[in-house]
Amino acid sequence: MTDPRNESIAAANTAPITSSNRDQSELWNGRSGNAWVNNRAVLDQMFVPLARFLIDRARDVAQHTPSGRMLDVGCGTGGTTLALANALGHPWQLTGADISAPMIAEARTRAAHARSPVTFVCADAQTHAFPPAHFDVIVSRLGVMFFDDPVAAFSNLRACARPGASLHALAWRGADDNAFMTVSDRAARPLLSDLPTRRAGAPGQFGFADRERVSGILTSAGWADVTLSPVDFECSFAQADLRDYASQVGPVGLALTRLAPLDRERVVDTIVEAFAPFVRDGVVRFTSACWHLSAFAND
């Protein structure tokens, strides 16, 4: 017999997004979303250690709950979701959700090629009507820092978690802890007058840097046993992919699209040179400094 809760998720696959996160919706359904699709392979390679960490957490849960449902929030092009599905096997039903239509389209293509039963939903996790008390585990690889109302978002996620469900999310710590992730910004800022200034606590890459603030968000949203633990991951990717990554991804990538081709290439040259301390023997290596957000949906 078909589970009606699974049908409700499947029906959402083609539902339009009604999002309060207007800026983020426009961003990830435009150039930023397309940039992530275009650089999908290198980004997945960069974040393999983060995916492995979440797989380990999921396997810990699976030891006590051999089958269940898992939600991957901000799943992007689906790399981590598909890796989780492969690790856990068919007893687990996985759903990936993301606000970006281009990235969800890519995720669905990847799932079809892999013949994976993962469901991908184009949805804003802050407002989407997930089935209530449905998921046994909620995970996220760097996808929870972009909500304009994070308490509302985590309250919505709490509502779709079953009693006793667990939350495991990875979010960046501060910019000062992530020197690699700020290279492009620092190198390009003197050359790009319209590069936006980062605001502490604003939706974005380092929006969850403040440990106490994030703990308060989760507690206010109804999650229990909230813990934020610092975790560092040694990441790498091929130097051959550095120029595309540095010139396309993030706020700098957006700003570069507004330049004339020759001006753009000059700025990109400067940015790529600034990454030199992280390059050795044809490989780019860096540390990702993250928080592991852990919590439970207690009764």
TrEMBL record:
Region: Disordered, residue numbers:
1-25
- This protein's species is Pandoraea capi
Q: Name one Pfam family in it.
A: Methyltransf_25
Its lineage opens with: Bacteria, Pseudomonadati, Pseudomonadota, Betaproteobacteria, Burkholderiales
Q: Name one GO molecular function term.
A: methyltransferase activity
| Domain of life per record | Bacteria
Q: What is this protein called?
A: SAM-dependent methyltransferase
List the InterPro entries.
Methyltransf_25, SAM-dependent_MTases_sf
PANTHER family (UniProt xref): METHYLTRANSFERASE (PTHR43464), UBIQUINONE BIOSYNTHESIS O-METHYLTRANSFERASE, MITOCHONDRIAL (PTHR43464:SF19)
Question: Could you tell me which residue ranges the Methyltransferase domain spans?
Answer: 71-164
The alphabetized list of GO BP terms reads: methylation
Keyword vocabulary terms for this entry: Methyltransferase, S-adenosyl-L-methionine, Transferase
